[in-house]
Structures are given as C-alpha cells and as structure tokens.
Design a protein that fits this description.
Elements: H1 4-9, H2 14-32, H3 41-52, H4 57-68, H5 71-76, H6 82-98
Helix pairs in contact: 2-3, 2-6, 4-6
C-alpha cells in the first residue's frame, strides 16, 4: 500500500491524469455501443457523450479521487497496469453517472 502523501500526489500526476482520461474515453466508447436494454442506458449514453466531448472537467477530479482509492492504485501507484487502471475507471463510472 502506498503512503497517504504518495496517494494524494497521484491526483496531480500529469501522466496518470492522461491515462485516466484515455480510460474514460474507452469506457465512453463502449457505453455508446452497448445494448439499449442495458440498465440506465439513457443516463449512461448522456454521460458518454459528454465524456467524448470532454465536458466533464468538473467531475474529472471526482473521478481521479475515486480511481486513486482503488486497490490496484493503492498497491502499485504509478506502476499500475493499464488493465487494472481501466478496471478502476470502469468501476467508478456508475457513481459518476449517478452523480450527474
């Protein structure tokens, strides 16, 4: 587990921010092609469209806060794999959608 200061420093790490933004775009892309009968589909599509236009700057900090608390990030910090990082972003998205 990383130290508290190191965990908080991840919030402002430019490289991690780029990776999270890319993971967010991948998630949005998959949401846009998911089946229409997916639960909360309309809300998910609305969120994905905003994500694709990068209109989520206000909520990006909230996404980062959620992602850095993921177990994989807490264990590996900046060495987290892309697969684990994508999993952390995917797990955070329902909360982001519910929050508007």
């Amino acid at each position: 587990m990383i130290a508290y200061k190191d965990g908080y420093d991840l919030l402002d790490n430019a490289e991690l921010q780029k990776r999270v933004k890319y993971a967010r775009l991948r998630s949005a892309t998959f949401i846009l092609i998911e089946a229409a009968n997916t639960p909360n589909h309309a809300e998910r599509v609305a969120w994905a469209e905003k994500a694709m236009r990068d209109q989520l700057q206000m909520s990006f900090r909230e996404l980062m806060l959620t992602v850095i608390l993921d177990a994989a990030l807490q264990q590996d910090g900046l060495l987290v794999t892309d697969v684990a990082l994508q999993g952390a972003v995917d797990a955070a998205i329902p909360r982001m959608i519910a929050g508007g």
